[in-house]
Amino acid sequence: MDQGNSITDVIVVGAGITGISCARLLAQAGRRVLVLDKGRRIGGRMATRRLPDRMILDHGAQYLRPRTPGFAALLAEAGSHAAPWPLDDGVVHVGQPGMSGLVRHLAEGLEVRQSAQVTALAPLDDGWRVMLGDQAVDARHLVLTIPPAQARALLGADHALADALSRVAMLPSITLMAVLDRAAARPFVTRKGEGALAWIAQDSAKPGRPQDGPTGWVVQSDPAFSAVHIDLPFDALAAMLAPMLLKAIGAQPEHLLQAVAHRWLYAQVDVPLGQPFLRQGALWVGGDWCLGPRAEDGFHSGQAIAQDLLART
């Protein structure tokens, strides 16, 4: 390796639950880990947006429903960073103060570099070089916890893992975050549907959210609707979805205080990899898309990567 560059043991690309859970386990084992993420906030698709009037809205994963002992134990250990939320079909859990809060808790003590866009990767004789624009960071081991299409683009179509990555299918989603005044109707807490209104949640009803101000709602569209409209400007998406939400809950246009849209190109896996991760030499690639559509799947992928890396090195 070029001694003029920064060298670390492991670089993890992606600060969602997969990358952070992987980095956390590696760091606990005494490894020097650097996490790089192109976003401004930790969490990935466990995302939380802060709006005026103390409004906190989760515009990615809406809740967690643990299905395995390991993930249930993680939520139990999180203490005040996760809270139960009773719904009609059972009790789920949400991060505190928003969904990203749980991932930020897991990231405590880790070296995480935000707004770090990886532009290129280059294999070295004894590791990998990660390019951040004109800055190079070298590592002995590289973990990519990003969507498969993005990993394939960075590695190249001729890479040994490219074919496996191309077989994973991801689905898009559009999200609306809306703030309504307290006079607006609140006929339900959550409702499932289809099309533009596949999911509607009174997000401000989640535990720990301010209850003395405006009401926050989150709408998520299904993949079919999202695929058709995903390239529209955010303002156009908000203008399209907000009236649909108002009609669905029986609110009036004058109740709407703010409407903001977000797009997820890789919201949920449709055809998973079918194994916890891919590996080739000193490179590991993983994410929820390896195992299924839930954040819990991402957690298990990250844990499996860390365990495999530690066992081999």
Describe this structure in words.
- The chain folds into 2 domains: 6-168 and 272-312, FAD/NAD(P)-binding domain, CATH 3.50.50.60; 170-269, Alpha-Beta Complex (Polyamine Oxidase, Chain A, domain 2).
- 26% of the residues lie in helices and 33% in strands.
- The radius of gyration is 20 Å and the shape is globular.
- With 313 residues, the protein is an alpha+beta fold.
- The protein contains 8 helices and 17 strands.
- Strands 1, 2, 7, 8, 9, 10, 16 and 17 form an 8-stranded mixed beta sheet that branches.
C-alpha Rg (nearest Å): 20 Å
The CATH topology of the largest domain comes to FAD/NAD(P)-binding domain
Report the sheet-strand fraction.
25-35%
The CATH superfamily of the largest domain is identified as: FAD/NAD(P)-binding domain
Distance between the termini: 18 Å
CATH architecture of the largest domain: 3-Layer(bba) Sandwich
Outline: globular
Distinct helical segment count: 8
Number of structural domains: 2
Order of SSEs:
EHEEEHEEHEEEEHHEEEEHHEEEH
Q: Percent helix among the residues? A: 25-40%
* Low-confidence runs of at least 5 consecutive residues: none
Query: What is the level 1 CATH name of the largest domain?
Result: Alpha Beta
For the biggest sheet, the summary is: 8 strands, mixed
Number of strands: 17
- What do the pLDDT scores average to? 95
- Class by SSE composition: alpha+beta
